[in-house]
Amino acid sequence: MESEHAPRIPELSAHLIEAGGKRLRPVLTLAAAKLCGYEGDHQIRLAAAVEFIHTATLLHDDVVDESAKRRGRPTANILFGNQQSVLVGDYLFARSFQLMVETGSIRVLDILAGASAVIAEGEVLQLTAQHDLAGGEARYFQVIRGKTAALFAAAAEVGGVVAAATEAEISALRNYGDALGIAFQLVDDRLDYGGAAAAMGKNVGDDFRDGKATLPVLIAHQEGGPEERDFWSRVIEDHDQSDGDLEEAHRLLGAHRALDRTTERAAEWGERAIAALDIFADSEMKRALTDIVGFVTARAR
Amino acid sequence: MESEHAPRIPELSAHLIEAGGKRLRPVLTLAAAKLCGYEGDHQIRLAAAVEFIHTATLLHDDVVDESAKRRGRPTANILFGNQQSVLVGDYLFARSFQLMVETGSIRVLDILAGASAVIAEGEVLQLTAQHDLAGGEARYFQVIRGKTAALFAAAAEVGGVVAAATEAEISALRNYGDALGIAFQLVDDRLDYGGAAAAMGKNVGDDFRDGKATLPVLIAHQEGGPEERDFWSRVIEDHDQSDGDLEEAHRLLGAHRALDRTTERAAEWGERAIAALDIFADSEMKRALTDIVGFVTARAR
Fold first, then answer.
1. What is this model's ipTM?
2. Listed residue (B147, B35, B155) closest to B100, CA to CA
3. Looking at residue B110, which CATH number applies to its domain?
4. Which of B3, B60, B84 sits opposite A90 (nearest CB)?
5. Domain count across chain B
6. Structural contact between residues B147 and B259, judged by C-beta atoms closer than 8 angstroms
7. Which residue of A65, A96, A101, A210 to mutate against B (max B Cβ within 10 Å)?
8. Which residues form the domain of A232?
9. In a domain, B1, yes or no
10. Position B2 in a domain
């Protein structure tokens, strides 16, 4: 985070990074490397690189979404302005590649450059498709694979790569991260409609107000009769909302058990993540990676 | 520029890339590689990577500066919105690293990741220091080295690296690019006060209206009496401007030959760029790189 010439860079980065957050992605890198018996120290640079990429995307997302709150505090774009958020995000992104270069592994750079491209692609896709109900679950999963699961998958995978694990192990770690990332985003999208979210510093109802076609909405829309579909079409596709619409949305989500079913789907993806680890013998790190799945899916209960 | 899932990406990228521009930076990579006798094809990927980094920074700059016009056309942020500009910039930046990975050269990744970090640092520094007259020329050169010369230097340097040139040749190419980049920015900052700028699609007077302490202003401030310094302090440092101030600025710039002297400084840096090439024997590519210096500095006349 340091910068010799621009002291605003560590100041702004620290605002976001020191606010906490779960540090899930870098933990995946560290745990995956240790699981595969790695005894060097390159995994530390990679874990930092992964967290920098994540932080850069948060800085840019908050500009894109015009968010006012993140992790229970005012966002950097509110405190420092959009300009600083865009440029400091760029700086952290470039620094993350410098950290990867220090490991000397082209394969690591390939994986994380690829993930970065997929993340940006997923965000652009979300921007153009977020109000679209017709794309259904296929489109939804395409978006969350890009914007969330890609970095989880890459974070776990590079832990295996730096440890020179077997191709089967590296592939298992990638599948673990992918499934965990999907479970994580499903839980996030469910919590946006209430639950333990207040404790996370999230603004409940943001996705509804933004007219985002997340999985709970897609389930209720899919299962609803013509009148219900008209409602969803108005509030999501046309993004035409008025007082009482959020309450009506909650009533329809409840009628179709859409929030519970989203939680169930998250649990299924959590099971897939755990199953991906079957290839590894029991160990402290395998139990840690399994526990992370429980931590992620339990947030929804 | 392609994207399977997000067609908006090639659309927005093409808006900027097909608008033309001088393609100076990728030409440096291609010419440097050929100058050093390279016969492979990796220089093409690197030239594209360099232009992608440049395009990504333009997209983000236009968001940061709230620009309305670039290369004579409406900017992408005006046509497509800030959100798309931020995210498509991120995408091009990630794609540029994928192109570098294809060359298999960690050194190339090191050079261009380093340049990317320096560019972002220079932009952040410019944002916090742009109205500051006290920093003087030292601060000014620090900013333009970061925001402009770093990518020119890296573009030329990676051409030598991919050609497996000697360290002396690689260093010469880097020095050439650095000096050329500084000359280029000096000319740009001079043209912002008029001249051939109309033909470039630039908005004359933008730097003054933004209160930027560019070299012409620093020269006039440095040489002016107390009243003149008060004027510059008000319009640049306090960014408090009213009708007639731009005319007054032009009068003071003229009185101290500040625009001509900026042009002369650019010519000096151009000479340094040409001198850096002394290590190379005469060849078609050496003459091409020399001609580029003439092209860049002649814009100011």
1. 0.89
2. B155
3. 1.10.600.10
4. B60
5. 1
6. no
7. A101
8. 8-298
9. no
10. no
